[in-house]
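2024-03-11 09:14:02 INFO queue: dequeued item 2-oxo-4-hydroxy-4-carboxy-5-ureidoimidazoline decarboxylase, len=594
2024-03-11 09:14:02 INFO validating residues
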Amino acid sequence: MSLDLQHLNTLDGEAFVAALDGVYEHSPWIARRAAARRPFASLAALKLALAQAVSQASPQEQLGLIRAHPELAGKAAVAGQLTAESTDEQSRAGLQHCSPTEFERLQALNKAYGERFGWPFILAVRGPRGLGLSRQAIIEAFERRLHAPPDVERAECLRNIHRIAEIRLDDKFAAPPLLGNAVLDAADHLARHSEPPFAEQGQLCVTYMTPAHQAVAQDLTLAMQEAGFDDVSVDALGNVVGVLHGIQADAPWLLTGSHYDTVRNAGRHDGRLGVLATIEAVRQLKQQGRRLPFTLELVAFAEEEGQRFAATFLSSSALVGRFDPAWLDQQDAEGIRLQDALRAAGHPGTLASIQALRRDPARYGGYVELHIEQGPVLCELDLPLGVVTSINGSRRYLGEITGLASHAGTTPMDRRRDAAAAAAELVLAVEHEAQARPGTVGTVGLLEVPGGSINVVPGRCRFSLDLRAGDDTQRDALDAAVRARLQSICERRGLQGSLTPTVVASAAPSDAAWQARWEAAVQSLGLPVHRLPSGAGHDAMKIHEALPQAMLFVRGGNLGISHNPLETVSNDDADLAVRALLALLDGLSKEHKA
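2024-03-11 09:14:37 INFO prediction written
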């Protein structure tokens, strides 16, 4: 018989612990401490309370929890001594059917891992979808994490233990995250489209107006139609637009969306998670026979990443009337103009057709976007959702330092004009200046010595510079400090330095009312509200130029890594994201009825 949350809240302490037996391997103390936090408003609240009991435990208790878990395909598994839960999980991952080569590799990894860390390797082998990882995926994760710093790996083990517990709780409560499963299945379905040579290597890459990009647009069109949108179309820039008409014809529309293009060798959820979660939310409304008081418009933006053409945000720019006509003549790496790429894909490719996409701000009440966090904050806090306070503004440059190339053997150290050494000093200066200003970040991501040689003191060094902050005043203060440091470094070393601006983007603070609506939605799920800025840019920061906007972040696994095949979202977190969006729609509906 499955557990019932309402009944669980009424049990005495030891009965509560007994009911949750097996959720955390051989560690009843976790449930015992979490019991004091009752009553739990939701299963998500129970999961969080259990995780917090672990995070607040002593290091020795945490280490004991890790060591309570068995090795993967280890001696206990071979001897049939695993708990029923661990046996089921390792079985779902096929670890009971390893080939001799796989078994030998796992034993070697277990030995090396134990010698390095002193505890067993912990991995939620049922994976983000709950169905079970492949043995190859398990071995790859094992090999990757074997080289992590001990403190990082210890924290990752605890996060995997929480994921194992989450899946076990879903089973105990007979509460599969069906909405999240649908979202992850849809993401996997879209990921079958990729372009060469990435497709041949099993990697995901979908850049603007390629055949793979057009195939994704077709799939999204069909998905929106099947979910129940009243009108679905593909516009002149390839945006897939779904409209769900509201009951009140004069009510302000709600605009939502995210992008479906990807970077090269990408993950499956950046951008697409927000689109697919909204499609699933509309499916739920239609199945319930509900119609919102207001019209909901979903835009799956065709371009956000700037991978094929340099015109980043060209899709959302058109919606706010900021499409630059010069972009039509931009060329990709093969010399194909944007205008010609549009026409080859069946679009008019004219400025008039693009300018017609501009939305009238008077029609809309606001814009909301749901997105994977693309960072480690929520993951480290064991929180599935976070409310965005602002999208960071940025200044980007391509820089160059010029000195004097000279012989590496005959030029004394005190007579060198080394451009690369100056650039290295600047990298550290950027790090120092950003660390001194909370809320700012600075990155030198590219360093190049043109024509460099092993025995030549570098005479030139090129570099990139990316400065970001949650508001423009902070961004500009960091910018001024870094510029001053560059000038100082060059003057002291007898060099010349220059910075050429490439991007200037203003910060996009969340609208207070719309941020509050996301906060209420998160609280309705029994979760605490955690507020955080977005360090990455999003379509929301373009829509911000015309409409009030606010975003909701969803936790990413693997320490929140994104723009990478390791990017992942669990079915439980995706499920909560859909439910949060539905809660926001419910709350907005009540406002219209009031």
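2024-03-11 09:14:37 INFO annotate: Residues 150-172 form the longest helix (23 residues).
2024-03-11 09:14:38 INFO item closed
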